Amino acid sequence: MSDARSELTVSLWRGAQQGRYERYNVPLRENQTVLDVVTFVQRHLDPTLSYRFACRVGVCGSCAMTVNGRPRWTCRTHVSTVAKAGHLEIGPLENLPVIKDLATDMRAFFEKWQQAKGAFVPSKTRHDAIDAIRPDSPARIAADAAIECINCGICYAACDTVRWNPDYLGPAALNRAWTLVNDARDAGNAARLAAVAAAGGCHACHSHQSCQEYCPQALNPTASIAGLKRRTAAAYLRGEIKA
Amino acid sequence: MNVRLYVWQRATAALMLPLVLVHVTVIFYATRRGMTAADILARTRGSIVWAALYGTFVIAAAIHAAIGVRNVLTEWSPLGERAASLFTVAFGAALLLLGLRAVAAVVL
To answer: Is some CB atom of chain A closer than 8 A to the CB atom of B76?
Structure first.
């Protein structure tokens, strides 16, 4: 991008599942993020533009969009790193139904977290002593590597298997299940392993690693899914889960 | 794919790995030595070792390939899980039949 340029041309997806890209001109600023660009359009050019954001600092996972063909967290993506010849194309996330413009319907994404038994199942009451978990225990190290997910849906949008298999639970839900499988305090693993070992579960993953490639938190859901494949295979061979 | 098919596919793959190495070595050995069909048959006829080795190979390959084809069909064809299963059971049975027939031809 040339320093002399003072404007960006931005194509934004307008409409629902059927729609089109419309072009806008946005002033170029220093340290401008892609979310800043979308916000500028909504505040100054077209107030009917719909999109989602909340924290603006890479914590909440609300503002993921497709930027020049790739899923990205727009609040932490600088225009200078992604604009090509002064142009940005910004669309809604792939693999999710579009509600309007840049906002997708993320219900399927979160329902699959529930199907993968992504909720913690307590094994003790508030009256019991808290389990001491050593930071250097192998299970805690495995959980640690996967635990910083912000639920942004980027891995889900980037995943080829999600694209062609609507029943596939997806990288984020399986990554969440892996953190709980490694949580010594959790009591829900029998149901969890059965849920992720069924058709559409971890064994549907082809290890293309797009989830790892695009995860803004630099997590590796493919490795978590590989862990689930090993753990469920062992549980199946021991007769703990049926298929 | 569910965990049962996954375990069968990985287990048959692990079984085939050494068998493929033996198979490739045998091909190199036979061609380098310039062995004729008659030479080969003289060694394989009545051999329990060759019958067991290639018999195991054929069974493992039939299971492994059938599961793989089932995956391709469920992911890329309009067939449902049930139809894909029925087709691939037939496909695996055909592979098994053809393979065991070939093994029988060189060891019996």
So the answer is: yes
